[in-house]
Amino acid sequence: MKKVFVIALSLVLMFSLAACGGDSSSDGALSSSSPEGSSPASSAPSSSAPASSSPPDAASPDSGSSGQSDGYELALITDLGTIDDRSFNQGAWEGVVMYAEENNISHRYYQPAGQGDDAYLNAIDLAVQSGAKVIVTPGYLFETPIYVAQDRYPNVKFILLDGSPNDGDWSSGAPNAKVGDNTVSVFYAEEQSGFLAGYAAVIDGYRSLGFMGGMAVPAVIRFGHGYIQGAEFAAQELGLADGSVTLNYFYTGTFEPSPDIQTRAAAWYNDGVEVIFACGGGICFSIFPAAENSGNVVIGVDGDQSGESDTVITSAMKLLTKSVYDCLVDFYAGRFPGGQELIFSAANLGVGLPMDTSKFRAFSQSDYDSVYAKLVSGAVVVDNSFDIAPDSLPTSAVAVNNLG
């Protein structure tokens, strides 16, 4: 899966990622919007907060559900975050809502009562008992639950985002893995999205960058490594001297906000960091206030986070809504890609920056279109390794300060 970081100077012309309408349960329906556009310049849809009522409690199969007769045909199970996280859960849910409301299909989300495989399986059981034909599960934490559920419920279709079903047993070196015929695994080229964010930041004039990732899982690592490579590519294009761009790099070890994260972000800003890529779900809610208090800026992740804080200059997006929506289109058209692992990248418009809402000073739409075309054509190939240290990536203009 490793690729060499290749930069070709030739210009060649230029995804689909993590995407359903009708009677939604009051427990979790968001207002719908159209899919994230058909061009790399498209923005993610604006999103509203979910209904104020609590989601179903998935602690037991009959809790929060009125049974099979409810017929909630489309379902989403949240992971560690909430349905209104303005990130992974919400982006995926909006794809469900969009398709469902367009096609008058009942839909509902379920928030597990706890963490762990059993809690996630309980939530899946509840969704199936409530009539689910398709269940969307956002995140690698569902790999083992889906490995079990795809055999337990062969007539239900599963869309697993950012993961591939396996039994979770690493005792022999690698777990048993299987993408069932009723499951599709959806992955994203996070390294390309991170690349675009790092490239744009340096072209826009920023020279002191920061990356704060959540947990050091493959998707977060690829975002961060792409960010470094994009900054380096831009610096080389601009002819910047060795070490003229600095980049602090750190994993917080959590996807939740905390005072410690805000303190660290504030310290970085006070030390001269101009922009922090907040790459870890809820950690952005600790980084936003640090940026606001210091007059600095943030790069968001997964979805368009411009509405969360005036400090957000852009977001490294996985077009989650579009990918879920597209998978649902395929299901109802009788061409569900079961048994496959799909990768949404620049080539199929699966990743990008929300240029319509970005607040760049110099980086232009034409700059974006040009670099995006190079990703699509293969003129630029971004290393997607996740088993190497960030400061081992080949850079010269960018000096990476790996803080763990």
Indicate the percent of residues in helices. Answer: 25-40%
Tell me the number of strands.
15
| Overall SS class | alpha/beta
CATH superfamily of the largest domain: Response regulator
Protein architecture, described:
This protein is α/β, with parallel strands linked by helices and 404 residues long. The protein folds into two domains: 14-188, Rossmann fold, CATH 3.40.50; 190-317 and 352-402, Rossmann fold, CATH 3.40.50. The protein has helices at 88-103, 117-129, 143-152, 190-203, 218-238, 259-270, 284-294, 320-332, 365-377, and strands spanning 6-7, 74-77, 107-110, 134-138, 157-161, 183-188, 208-213, 245-251, 275-279, 297-302, 312-318, 340-344, 351-352, 380-381, 398-402. A seven-stranded mixed sheet has the order 13-11-10-9-7-8-15, sandwiched between helices. It has a six-stranded parallel sheet with strand order 3-2-4-5-6-12, with helices on both faces. The chain has a two-stranded antiparallel ribbon with strand order 1-14. α2 runs parallel beside α3 (143-152), α4 (190-203) packs parallel to α5 (218-238) and α6 runs parallel beside α7.
